[in-house]
Amino acid sequence: MAQAFFGGVHPNDMKAATNEKAIEQLAAPAEVVIPMSMHIGAPCKPIVAVGDKVKIGQRIGEPGGFVSAPIHASISGTVKAVEPRPFSMGGKMMSVVIENDFQNEISEEVKPVADPDSLTPEQLVEIVKNAGIVGQGGATFPTHVKISSGLGKVDYVIINAAECEPYITGDHRTCLERPEQVIKGATLLAKCFGVDKVYIGIEANKQNAADVLNAKIAELNAPVVVEVLHTRYPQGAEKQLVQAVSGRQVPSGKLPADAGCCIFNLNTTCAIYRAVYEGLPVVNKIVTVSGSGVIDPKNIECPIGTPITKLFDACGGLKDETYKLIMGGPMMGLAQYDVDVTVGKGTGAMLAFADKEEQYVEDPQCIRCGKCVGVCPIRLEPVFMYKYLMKGDVDTWQNVLHGMDCIECGACTYTCPARLPLTHAFRLGKQEVNNARMAAKAKAEAEAKAAAEKKEA
């Protein structure tokens, strides 16, 4: 390890329930609900209508802009509805509902590349774009945009296999069960960026996975190096991973590319492999289903659009005392208010919690211990950030305390003995800033339009 990142915490990883359980294939459900937004950027526009027949891998959603990614059918069958449905990020999202015909027909659009070794960087970008690949660690940034914007600027490519969130073990199992996909996908990225080596950052609590990857690297003589990192959360955050693997630091307000680095999630790398070698777009997702409320925790691979209730059913159901469902990890995941939401491209885990795992305080009071400052990996001051937000002073929070640099990792909330809802407050602060920006933009556009109309008159 070149260098440890600042701050961080050591929560109980809670991975024992699933880290030795092989990935199970879930039988395709009778119906999938595929939301038209599974990426950062404008939602896709549905290009199918009720009654249309679709096949696995067929495009059903066209990108709504450059920072967007197409969406494909995950099962074959008939389009039952095109309408807003409950969405994991809250509210409702336009979705395509497909009724399964259980024929598992593959679309004619699914064609593997004849000679993967001959691909140019531009051709790989186009394949990744057409396959609808996004960051599958949860950020869901379109991968073709990341690659194309980094060409000629990046000299350090890192695969994120840290999987630092408690409970989640899907990446760990992928390394153990599908090392060839990981290494060949990484090799494609090495050639694309023109680098001598691609680095895979993996935490020390997955040493067996590192050993399997190293064996496959030797077998394939691949330009890949496995870096075993100390187990510490949030090791998988991109700025922290850049520092831990390369020793470089990403400046405030900048991206890893500004430090000459590019980060790809492990399963994103496997998706690149499948797009090139099998011709498959993103139609499946590996999800860890765990937590104290799950009767039989498992790692499950299922079609995109699978209702989360089907995942829990495959794990024996939920305990009666279950009180909370979280999509993602316990540190950064989102609590779900509706059991009708479905699996998306960025869904890495579905957790259910029961009994006394979570303890709220009705009127939490800061005791000025400073623990939150010591664990913040961005070197912010959560104690003061929270204070100014509670006073309604968003300007100081943003401009003096650099609140927008917060990565929402939850380390401060985890370590706070007073149980202050720090991360939640910072998310609301960001929302206020973004709302103000949007309002200012709308006002400027309206004024410009009024000026233009006045000039024409």
User: Average pLDDT value?
Assistant: 93
Please trace the helix and strand order, writing H or E for each element: EEEEEEEEHHEHHEHEHEHEEHEEEHHHHH
Radius of gyration: 22 Å
**Structural class by helix and strand composition:** alpha/beta
Q: Strand percentage, roughly?
A: 15-25%
Strand order of the largest sheet: 1-14-13-17-15-16
The number of distinct helices, counting runs of at least 4 residues, comes to 13
**Biggest sheet, open or closed, and with what strands and sense?**
6 strands, mixed
Q: What is the molecular shape?
A: globular
Q: Which stretches are poorly predicted, pLDDT < 50 over at least 5 residues?
A: none
Based on DSSP secondary structure assignment, what is the total number of beta strands? 17
Q: What is the rounded distance between the termini?
A: 67 Å
Fraction of residues in helix: 25-40%
